[in-house]
Amino acid sequence: MKHALQKLRIVVIGVAILLFALTSRLADAQDLAAFEKRMTEFTLDNGLKFLVLERHEVPVISFHIYADVGAVDEVRGITGLAHLFEHMAFKGTKAIGTMDYEAEAEAMAKIDEAFLALKAERRKGDRADEARLEQLQSQMKEAQEAAQEHLVHDEYEEVFSREGSAGFNAYTSQDATQYIVSLPSNKVELWMVMESDRFANVVLREFYKEKDVVMEERRLSVESRPVGRLLEEFMGIAYKAHPYGDQVVGHMSDIETLTRAEAEAFFKKYYSPSNLTIAIVGDVAPDNVRKLAEKYFGRIPSGPKPDPVETVEPPQLGQRRVVVEDPAQPFVLIGYHKPSIHHPDDAVFDAITDIVGMGRTSRLYKSLVKEKMIAVYASGFQGMPGYKYPSLFLFYAVPARGRTNQECEEAIDTEIERLKSELVSPEELAKARTRARASLVRQLASNSGLAAQLTFYEVITGDWRNLFRQLDKIDKVTAEDIQRVAGEYFTTRNRTVGIIETTVAANQ
User: Fold this and answer.
1) What is the distance, to the nearest Å, from the Cα of residue 165 to the centroid of all Cα atoms in its chain?
2) Residue 417 CB partners (closer than 8 Å, separation 6+)
3) What is the pLDDT along the chain (508 residues), one digit of tens a residue?
4) C-alpha triplet 412, 472, 337: angle, nearest 5°
5) How far apart are CA 501 and CA 168, in angstroms?
6) Most buried pick, 132, 227, 238, 406, via CB within 10 A?
7) How many other CB atoms are there within 10 angstroms of residue 301's CB atom?
8) Which phi and psi angles does 343 have, rounded to 5°?
9) Pairing of strands 320-326, 495-502
10) Strands 276-282 and 49-54
């Protein structure tokens, strides 16, 4: 056993070294034409799209599955389900993670039955029978303990770990849910077997136990963090109709009442092959990938691609403000509604992000932090909370000790007015273009980072090539474009402000 662990460590360290080598060098070719020569695209009969990019420098491959479903696709009553399903996708399948699936399925059915009865009794509120609640809670606990007898914990992840995986993870955003891992290049078929089984035969085991994990995650990320509470309040008033206003983690009451049946229905609707895109980047043979993809992923039944969100956020009729009172450091957020990534002005917002908000050379940082010394940090960026639908351009600042939110808000307003009244300098535009190109080079240097960018641009914009075309669009942005966009969108009527107002208790 000790020898096996030593061998495993050597493999993992070896993969880590190779990945470091990838991420620490510049891509050898950064233009679209060079990438097109090494890119193979194909779509299976069931609608699943593959992007395969050859990079043979080291024997490592990065795999990136992009599910075109995120928190934005939820409806009232099931918020948090996209994120919860991401957790469940690691629990295994009918063949992985269980010693006896048939017996386990019977046990899970009893858990579902107990939870539904418990949920029905809780719904009575003050009329609920306390003795009945205690009895049902006991029955559910017993059913969960019985199901545990059939489980093999963490088997799915351990299979990859034994074969030298790195970066095995997943994450959920408003727009998407993504599953990633890097493996030695001779493990392509292993990945095909494992990941196709995950989406063909997923089992939502330990569902109600994992809900407790997610609820604790919400407590830590939102309810116990002042900025987390502010952001939830802020987004709630910035959006009154579109689901971008809800947090990815979901509302606590929704998480508490979600059922396994609702999660299975969500999976069936949003995880059909037509709603998945896979990028495979590294030391790979495209013909072999296609053959294996048809063999393993081709067996998954096809289904219709879900419709996009049809709710349109109506224009604001005036400024909105929210104040969160808290014994914490003051904080100010200012957001302006803006179009999605599909709008012709998207590149202009990228340029504004760089000039006004990115890093220590940005206008906001230089003005608020270095010169006026009223903030310890200040920044601004587009795409909050996503890119698929119209979102927000967000400015924010953290006031320095003894300084106020009002001072920071006024200073941010001054910089916004500069954008409207003065043309940005040729030097600022040139730096924005240079940094955009440098950012692309950094993304291309990593197999995993490149796979993420390829899937993002393929799904969100309809063509992975737009990863490169965005640079051309930024190069064409003029100072007049920036002035026009700032004047059109950064208006009082289109503005939402959120602040943390430090309570007296914090000063005592």
Assistant:
1) 21
2) none
3) 333 333 333 333 343 333 333 333 333 345 788 889 999 999 999 999 999 999 999 999 999 999 999 999 999 899 999 999 999 999 999 999 999 999 999 999 999 999 999 999 999 999 989 999 999 999 999 999 999 999 999 999 999 999 999 999 999 999 999 999 999 999 999 999 999 999 999 999 999 999 999 999 999 999 999 999 999 999 999 999 999 999 999 999 999 999 999 999 999 999 999 999 999 999 999 999 999 999 999 999 999 999 999 999 999 999 999 999 999 999 999 999 999 999 999 999 999 999 999 989 999 999 999 999 999 999 999 999 999 999 999 999 999 999 999 999 999 999 999 999 999 999 999 999 998 888 888 888 889 999 999 999 999 999 999 998 988 899 999 999 999 999 999 999 999 999 999 987 644 4
4) 35
5) 40
6) 238
7) 8
8) -75, 145
9) parallel
10) parallel
SS3 54: strand
CA distance 343 to 340: 6
What does the alpha-carbon distance between residue 82 and residue 344 come to, in Å, rounded to a whole number? Answer: 30
Domains of the chain with bracketed CATH: 36-89+172-299 (3.30.830.10), 320-507 (3.30.830.10)
**Token pair 């779509």: residue:** 43
- Can you tell me which residue has the tokens 């389900």? 81
Q: Which residues pair with 381 in a beta bridge?
A: 394
The encoded tokens of residue 441 equal 């080079």
Q: Which residues have a Cβ under 8 Å from the Cβ of 75 and sit 6 or more positions away?
A: 243
The token pair that represents 274 in the structure block: 């037509």
Residue 478 is which amino acid?
T
Q: Indicate the residue type of 275.
A: N
Q: Which residues contact 178 (CB under 8 A, 6 or more apart)?
A: 64, 65, 66, 67, 170, 171, 172, 452, 455
Q: How far apart are CA 400 and CA 385, in angstroms?
A: 26
Q: What is the pTM of this model?
A: 0.90
- What is the amino acid identity at position 42? F
From 425, 420, 414, select the one nearest 488 (Cα to Cα). Answer: 420
Residue type, 124: K
